[in-house]
Write a structure and sequence with these properties.
Blueprint (H helix, E strand, L loop, with lengths): L10 H16 L9 E9 L2 E9 L45 E5 L3 E3 L2 E3 L2 E8 L5 E6 L15 E7 L2 E16 L3 E18 L3 H13 L7 H14 L3 H12 L9 H13 L3 H13 L5 H13 L3 H14 L6 H11 L3 H14 L3 H15 L6
Antiparallel strand pairs: 1-2, 2-3, 3-6, 4-5, 4-10, 6-7, 7-8, 9-10
Helix pairs in contact: 2-3, 3-4, 3-5, 4-5, 5-6, 7-8, 8-9, 9-10, 10-11
């Protein structure tokens, strides 16, 4: 059985201990030392980051409680010496037990601000009371640190360990997550070692995938082109290509369909590219299109209100009432339109009609609050 932090041992003992992992590869059975295998995977945008490791516990195989004795004890500070293998006096910790802990990145990333190419890496650490050196080795298939070679290092970074709640089993977890980065931490005993992984251009990777998808079977669906355009519009990126995608989606033909959704997205793309007049004409066409539902028009009115374009929103609510009289949620829109015009009596009447049509408790409660505000002479949100 090979234990984490093993420094040196007589040749015979080493030979016997090494027999366990060799046999484990040939025969089914429990992992060496009871150190169960584990893995954790996290997506950062389209990038997949996986850590695979063997997980020792604070209590030793012989029942010894090693709490408070892991760091600087079982796991020594600095490089260690080992009589077996070739690492000699420069043996880092394997950052787990048994076989190498392996980090896998599906795409190029940055680790603690330093670039690291996609691939699989053996993870090693040089612990210290104030600072850990994290080593990503191109050798990810070894057992322990015995054959570690610094010449195989792909990257070394330094991080600060920090106190953490007690963790019995050595565990890796993604403790902080953002759209373009995540922090994975090794946690054991009462310490954690955080490693920040960043994807420099998440949107660029998404765009590359979108372009590929539009060239395969996905591209035969107009909705894929519309969604591609919306992706860019929401992020305010790649706007000229977004316009082309929106035009493709809204052009009737083999893969394009003219509808409220495709036309309204085209209008947004035109506006984003400085084509104000074209955008206005396209949106008018969208509102008049047979596919424009009461919900479509209502949500467009709400969008205009959120943009403080109140007069335009009122016009949309009134158009909706003409196109879809007395249908949910038309009366909600009318209540908002009348309230914006200062017609409280008419707004209350419309809100009460809407209350009787509300499809669920959430909408009913919102309308009750609206009615209460109108009756108190307060503005509605």
């Amino acid at each position: 059985m090979i234990r984490p932090g093993l420094r040196s041992a007589p040749a015979l003992v080493l030979a016997l201990s090494l027999a366990a992992p060799a046999a484990a590869q040939r025969l089914a059975g429990p992992p060496s030392g009871g150190n169960q295998k584990a893995s954790v995977t996290q997506g950062i945008g389209p990038v997949e980051v996986t850590v695979s490791y063997s997980s020792p516990k604070v209590v030793g195989p012989d029942g010894t409680d090693r709490r408070g004795k892991i760091w600087g004890g079982l796991v020594p500070y600095g490089m260690s010496k080992d009589a077996f293998g070739t690492c000699g006096d420069e043996c880092p910790w394997r950052a787990g037990a048994n076989e190498n802990t392996v980090f896998r990145f599906s795409h190029d990333v940055k680790v603690e601000g330093q670039p690291l190419a996609a691939g699989a890496y053996g993870l090693f650490m040089v612990p210290g009371p104030e600072e850990f050196t994290i080593i990503f080795s191109r050798n990810s298939t070894s057992w322990g640190h015995y054959f570690y070679d610094a010449k195989e290092d792909a990257l070394r970074v330094k991080v600060k360990p920090r106190k953490a709640p007690y963790t019995h089993w050595l565990t890796y977890d993604f403790v902080e997550r953002k759209p373009s980065e995540a922090t994975v931490a090794l946690r054991w005993d009462e310490l954690e070692v955080p490693i920040r992984v960043e994807v420099p251009d998440v949107d660029g990777l998404y765009l590359a995938e979108i372009r590929n998808q539009l060239r395969n079977a996905t591209g035969f669906d107009w909705q894929a082109w519309e969604q591609a355009a919306q992706f860019c519009l929401e992020r305010k990126i790649n706007l000229p290509e977004a316009l082309k995608w929106a035009e493709h989606a809204a052009t009737p033909g083999f893969t394009g369909v003219e509808s409220f959704k495709s036309l309204s997205t085209l209008s947004q793309a035109q506006a984003a590219n400085g084509m104000a007049d074209a955008a206005k004409a396209t949106m008018q066409k969208a509102m008049e299109h047979p596919t424009a539902t009461a919900v479509d028009l209502h949500m467009y009115g709400r969008q205009l209100q959120a943009q403080k374009r109140t007069d335009e929103a009122v016009a949309v609510y009134i158009l909706n009432a003409k196109r879809h009289p007395d249908v949910w949620p038309v009366n909600v829109g009318l209540a908002r339109a009348y309230a914006a015009q200062g017609k409280t009596k008419e707004a209350l009447a419309a809100a009460k009609k809407a209350l009787a049509q509300a499809p669920d408790d959430n909408n009913r409660n919102n309308l009750k609050n609206m009615i209460a505000s109108l009756e108190a002479g307060k503005p509605i949100s």
